[in-house]
Amino acid sequence: MSEPVLPSFPGDFLWGVSTSAYQVEGAVSEGGRGRSVWDTFCETPDRVFSGQSGAIACDHYHRYPEDIGLMRDLGVGAYRFSIAWPRVQPEGTGAANPEGLAFYDRLVDALCEAGITPVATVYHWDTPQLIEDAGGWLSRDTAKHFAEYASIVGAKLADRVPMWIPINEPMVTTVYGYGIGQYAPGQFLLMDAIPTAHHQNLAHGLAVQALRAAGAKQIGTANNHGPVWAATDTPGDREAAGRASDLINWLFADPVLGAGYPESMHQHLPAGFADDLPAISAPIDFYGVNYYEPTQVSAPSEGNPLPFDLGEVEGYPMTTNGSPVVPDGLRQFLIELRERHGDRLPPVQITENGCSFDGVDDRARIDFLAEHLRSLRLAMHEGVDVRGYFVWSLLDNFEWSKGYQPRFGLVDVDYETQRRTPKASFTWYRELIRGDH
User: Fold this and answer.
1) 314 given a catalytic annotation
2) Does 8 reside within a domain?
């Protein structure tokens, strides 16, 4: 079967891969690491598939040299990883843990030696448990603690890490972690979870300032985004789609980009939220978009405390993770983002895009990536300034409440032996980076 022919990308386009600490590192009891909300969540009955956890995961903590070797073979220009807050500050406050910082020091040095740009995400959902016990993201103090943590890692690594992302996908923490309880910390607050969005946005802005003070050169975001479709063209469904998009997309993008909060969210935000908007909108150098799928909604049914009903996106192929494969949704959202924010929008990085499919001969993943890159190129032709693309993920890994069932990696991981096996998509992506497609 012939490989899909792709449009060309600029010569300086940045090709990368992404992972996150709790999903790949393992070693949760080593090196002075403190306890995180995900340690607790995974130990809580009926929260995670088959009682699985990230306690060992891909053992990246010990095997990072092998994984960097894979990335060197792949030919990527950048590796986006996350730093575990409880590994650096076991209690979430106070002095840094030297062993935790030393691990990231070694990782960054090894990446630089391999000619791979380190892209550091400061937070990917693994809040120290003691911070959660004190209120977590429902507490404004967490934003201040986070800025102190960002200052610590910036001071240690900014001399070698040129690209920084303070917080990964705050929407997921707000909606899935505090809103509907599917992710840690497992609270079911529905719209009363909205203050956690504001406190994460404030933490982002304060961390931007802290990282700049530490010498960080480029600072951006990594927000989960996608178009929201109305189930029908009725006024009720269209209004529901607007409110859903406010919650999923604009509650996070708008204030960071200096446009304030959507009006529909004001009633749910903490008192005095407007005073924090200047800090939240601290200038950034790139805007990160994580794209997986669109959302379809309709007007809320009677008794639904949310301002919309979620529906199924039908008529598209599905991944093994139950997501519809809608490549044009990436183009649609990027155009919407540019039209909404205009000159406020800095250059864009696609900081995550990927899919779950089984097997090492993963033709379906190749097709997924090819079609999404084609959609991305169309958005670029339509005027969206996109500078890079990161595949999720380098490795099969721990996929949160679904445990080890979904397989998102370009590299297969045998979790019993920790053997890594590059998939067909790994070879395809390598050839794409080399310009062979």
Assistant:
1) no
2) no
From 25, 132, 293, 352, the catalytic residue: 352
The helix/strand/coil state of 423 is coil
**Cα–chain center distance at 324:** 19
CA 204/CA 40 separation, integer angstroms:
25
> How many domains, in total, are found in the chain?
1
Structural domain of 64: 14-434
Structural domain contains residue 4: no
Is 399 a known ligand-binding residue? yes
**CA–CA dist 199, 140 (Å, integer):** 6
Catalytic residue among 25, 132, 169, 293: 169
Q: Is 353 annotated as a binding residue?
A: no
Q: Is 292 annotated as a binding residue?
A: yes
Please report the sign of the dihedral spanned by the C-alpha atoms of residue 410, residue 401, residue 226, residue 143.
negative
One-letter amino acid for residue 178 of the chain: Y
Q: Is 200 annotated as a binding residue?
A: no
What's the predicted TM-score (pTM) here?
0.98
Q: Give residue 1's pLDDT band: very low, low, confident or very high (50, 70, 90).
A: very low
CATH number of the domain to which 130 belongs: 3.20.20.80
102 lies in some domain: yes
Quick: pLDDT tens for 340-397: 999 999 999 999 999 999 999 999 999 999 999 999 999 999 999 999 999 999 999 9
Mean pLDDT of the chain: 97
Per the domain annotation, does 1 fall within a domain? no
Whether 352 sits among the annotated catalytic residues: the reply is: yes
